[in-house]
Amino acid sequence: MPHMFQDFLSQRTYNMRRNQIREILKVVSQPGMISLAGGIPAPETFPIEDLYRINEAVLDRYGAAALQYDLTEGFTPFREALVSYLGAKEINIGADEVLVFNGSQSVLDTLGKVLITPGDIIALETPSYLGAISAFSAYEPSYVSIATDDEGILPQSLEETLDRHRVKFIYLVTTFQNPTGRTLSAGRRQQVAEIVTRRGALVIEDDPYSDLRYRGEAVPAFYTFAPENTVYVSTVSKVFAPGLRLGFCLAPPLIHEWLYTAKQGADLHSNTYAQALAAEYICGGYIYEQVPKIIELYRPRQEAMLAAMEQHIPSDYVWTKPDGGMFIWAEGPEGVDAEQLYWKAVEQKVAFVPGKYFFIDPAEGLPTMRLNFTRADENAIEEAIATLGRVIREFKSV
Fold this sequence. Notes:
alpha/beta, 15 strands, seven-stranded mixed sheet
């Protein structure tokens, strides 16, 4: 019976990849579990009190229009608000250049639909964001890896990749990358921009985390270095409310038109009311008050995790020390399988994400793990890392 409709499935369906992180997250609901796993904002960052006022303002200002079908490209006041929001990031565009989607994940899926022909080659950082790989894989591409270090992708590796392969596009999480927390430095951005501009290459820049900076100077979006060769993808999920599912993108004109057409066929338009709330959140100045509060909540949590790792994690492990974002990336010595560590840690009520899921070839990432610090408070983080350190030592001694 379970297979009676097997022949009805498309060939493309078999290329879809279940998001292993979301499967892992089912474990974190167990009582007493300290989760360092999901890339999920802390509920304390949601502007609940402000939303009472925002909701009233939306109904007063837009009335029934906020409840009605709307434009495929997005609710005009929200797109206009994004012009101001992005302008503060040195991204200078007009409202007609913005396309709004139901979360940035929907942007990635639609880009896959519009750009990928089966067999096309996509160049990725190593490791890369699992959600993007899941979105693109349904459209049957192949992947090649670009080598990275603590400053992001290596320009020479990108050049060599473009020499060896006919790459359809390059996918990058440029600032506080998921999963490593690394940021492509300003100097590297300039070098990569020169390469892609000279070679007529296309970059998909995914930028959900850049507002979450705890120290150091902000780096302009890669889009500002090569706007004609870049699709810029972002979201308000990390600084407003992820449940509203609001993402957006900027794209070169031809790609913009086809994204618009594909969205019409997929869902007609994104949630009008959610966009109206987000427009008021930005235009009413709430976002500029809330983001510093979010940073003040997350900064000590990140510092607590880094301090605990120095104290409890064995010296043969190395890890990133990002200036912001939501993640720390750790790598153990050769021969460690972090998924085995994961199950041992879960028995001790601590969860994280084994890093192998972020690699095209999971064997490359066996000793790695992604640790999230946004959902747990400092005391819980200290307890979780101490537990993880014990699990690592016990695992080594077996």
